[in-house]
């Protein structure tokens, strides 16, 4: 998560337009013992899913070195298998910018009908995406956006600001319910310099402000389990009493929760970010983690649906317009103990 600029972490397609309606989300542990994430696919049905012209869809994404990216690749492949008219051509995943550029160029040379591309870094892969578009290959830009709109036909991704708003609203309402007047609110970010992190923090701050609260302290944890553990340990040591904690990413949250349990702290409640299965099991158990807000890797399955329709010259059957929209933004849902059973089968493994 260093050279590449992640844009994601949090869940759920916020509209029935392409029927993805499923879930998961974010950065995680690199533990080889972690089970493979479940793929969430949308079952065939509706006019858009009727067989059409046979097309070949190219796919490129970073290496699956954490749960969210692993779920991205799995969802894309599983969705493609739902269609008899789709040939799925995935290149070797990599975290090396130059290798991903070369991989995308191979798909351009293969003359795929459409390309689904989650770049390691939108800025650095902008030129090769533009090359595909100039070659007449429509690009579905997944999550990490290219700066040049001429480099993609469609963008689909999550709402980072919305994640922060969802988390802030949950925290604000819970603190009001508890009657806490001057709460100590701690925020554990991903990578502080990233726009996605800044958007999440702004959404969180704006929502808290609407409830009359502000963040007491925040620190970034680099989207890893190890740094999540270290940062949480430091913050717990610095604040002997905390009322609420928001952790941006459920994968790094594995380390955060370990630090909390190690310290024996139970006086506050925690909200996660992404919607991993691990986080949902913690919520179900009734511990310090009360909720998580989503950012879904099911967007990859939706991207395959979108790319297929574009390559076949079709639009969404539920819309009046004849072509697929230029952009699709996922909504961030809030998962609590009240609805966790409905979401748990859809979570990805941290």
TrEMBL record:
One Gene Ontology cellular component term attached to this UniProt record is: cell envelope
One Pfam assignment = Peripla_BP_4
The protein's superkingdom reads Bacteria
**Similarity field:** Belongs to the bacterial solute-binding protein 2 family.
Major location (coarse): other
Species whose genome carries this gene: Actinomadura barringtoniae
**Signal sequence extent:** 1-25
The reply to whether Signal figures as a keyword in the UniProt entry is yes
Task: Kindly provide the name given to this protein in its UniProt entry.
Answer: ABC transporter substrate-binding protein
InterPro entries found in the cross-reference section: Peripla_BP_I (IPR028082), SBP_2_dom (IPR025997), TAT_signal (IPR006311)
Sorted keywords for this record are: Signal
């Amino acid at each position: 998560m260093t050279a590449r600029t992640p844009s994601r972490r949090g869940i759920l397609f916020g509209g029935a337009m392409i029927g993805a309606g499923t879930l998961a989300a974010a950065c995680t542990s690199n533990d080889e013992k972690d089970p493979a994430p479940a793929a969430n696919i949308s079952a065939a049905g509706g006019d858009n899913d009727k067989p059409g012209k046979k097309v070949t869809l190219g796919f490129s994404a970073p290496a699956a070195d954490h749960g969210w990216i692993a779920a991205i690749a799995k969802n894309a492949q599983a969705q493609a298998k739902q269609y008899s008219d789709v040939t799925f051509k995935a290149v070797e995943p990599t975290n090396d910018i130059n290798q991903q550029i070369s991989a995308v160029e191979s798909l351009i040379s293969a003359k795929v009908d459409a390309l689904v591309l989650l770049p390691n870094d939108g800025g650095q892969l902008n030129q090769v995406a533009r090359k595909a578009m100039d070659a007449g290959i429509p690009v579905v830009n997944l999550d990490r956006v290219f700066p040049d709109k001429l480099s993609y036909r469609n963008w689909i991704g999550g709402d980072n600001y919305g994640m922060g708003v969802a988390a802030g609203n949950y925290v604000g309402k819970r603190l009001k319910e508890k009657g806490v007047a001057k709460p100590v609110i701690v925020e554990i970010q991903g990578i502080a310099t990233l726009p996605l992190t800044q958007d999440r923090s702004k959404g969180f701050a704006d929502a808290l402000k609407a409830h009359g609260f502000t963040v007491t302290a925040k620190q970034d944890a680099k989207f890893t389990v190890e740094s999540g553990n270290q940062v949480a340990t430091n913050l717990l040591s610095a604040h002997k009493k905390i009322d609420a904690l928001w952790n941006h990413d459920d994968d790094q949250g594995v380390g955060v929760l370990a630090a909390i349990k190690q310290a024996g702290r139970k006086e506050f409640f925690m909200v996660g970010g992404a919607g991993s299965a691990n986080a949902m099991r913690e919520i179900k158990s009734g511990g310090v983690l009360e909720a998580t807000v989503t950012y879904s890797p099911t967007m990859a399955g939706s991207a395959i649906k979108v790319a297929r329709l574009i390559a076949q010259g079709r639009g969404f059957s539920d819309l009046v317009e004849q072509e697929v929209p230029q952009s699709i933004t996922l909504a961030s849902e809030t998962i609590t103990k009240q609805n966790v059973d409905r979401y748990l089968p859809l979570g990805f493994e941290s």
